[in-house]
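This protein record is not my work; I was only asked to verify it. Where you disagree with what is written, explain briefly why. This is what I was given:
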Amino acid sequence: MPSINDFFPMEGLTFSIERNNTLIFDVTGVDQYEDHYVSFLPTSDIKTGDILIHPSGKKYSVLNTSVEYFGKEPYALNAYY
């Protein structure tokens, strides 16, 4: 059975993360554009105030983050924009 770690690379896009006007890393995320958030692996270092740069060049400012759980295990970090 595939894990969530397998899903993100298959379905996700590579976002660049900007913090304090500096590009700090690239990370795979799944854009939930209809609900205005991007899901990342729960270990991702995404913080309120970061800028997510979509592969198209569009920039999203992170307003809030939350962790989703399946049972007692975290499976996604959602960054709302």
User: Anything to note?
Assistant: Residues 4-80 form one domain. The first strand starts at residue 13 and ends at 19. The chain has one domain: 4-80. The radius of gyration is 12 Å.
